[in-house]
Amino acid sequence: MERFVVIGLGRFGQSVAINLAKLNKNVIAIDKDPQKVEEIADFVFQAAACDATDEKNLRDLGLKNADVGVVSVGEDISSSILITLTLKEMGVKKIISKALSQVQGKVLIKVGADRVIYPERDMGERLAKRLSSPQLFDLIELTESHGILELLAPESFVGKRLDQLELRKKYDVTVIAVKRNVPKLKDDGSTSFKESMILSPGPDFEILLGDIMIILGKSKGLDKIKKVK
Questions:
Q1: What pLDDT does 4 receive?
Q2: Chosen CATH of 3-117 out of 3.40.1410.10, 3.40.50.720, 3.30.750.24, 3.40.50.170
Q3: pTM above 0.85, yes or no
Q4: Residue 216 DSSP symbol
Q5: Which site among 75, 124, 125, 185 is 20 to 30 Å from 41 CA-CA?
C-alpha cells in the first residue's frame, strides 16, 4: 500500500490528509501543534505531534522510503527547506513542497522537492485562466496513479448535489474542497466578491455556477472527469 506523509496541518494539509485517508491510503499526518494533530487523529493511519525539523522524529515515525511527502509549512521557509531535505535523504520517492516566492521555490527544488506549490502566484494564474478559458483545470500529480485536480465545475454539474453526481462511483474520485466567490456588501452599498474555500463538502452540497472543484483520486478517473461538459 502506498504511504503518504503530510507535514503541516493547516487547511490545505489537513484536507489532503483526510481525503487521502478516505481513499483508503496509508497516511501519516504530522504537525507541531497537538491540537491540530488531535483534530485529524481519527481520520488517518497515524498522527504525530512533533517537530518535523528534527530528523530523529521523522525516522522514529518510520518515514524512510515513503511514497509521497507533502510539506505544507510554506510560511516557515527555513523549516520547509530542512524538512524537504530530510525527506529526500530518507528516500521519500516524491516530495511536494509549498513556497511563497520563486526564490524559495528554487531553493526547495535544489534540496529535493519534485514539485513546488506557490499559493499566491498560482491563485493569480488560475484567475487569469478562469477568465479566459471556459474549462479550467490544473493537475497536481501525487504519484503515478493519483493526483489532485482543480476544475471549473462543468455545466452538467451545476445545480446538482454531490450525492447526485456519484463521482466516487463513476470516476473513483472525491471532492475534497470547493472554491466559491461569495458576494459581500461594502459600506458604500456596492457589492464585491470574496473567494471562499469550503473544505470536505458533504453529500448534500450543491454545486453552483462558477465553483472551482478540487478533486482527489486516481489519475484515470481525473482524466475522464476533465472531459465532462
A1: 93
A2: 3.40.50.720
A3: no
A4: E
A5: 75
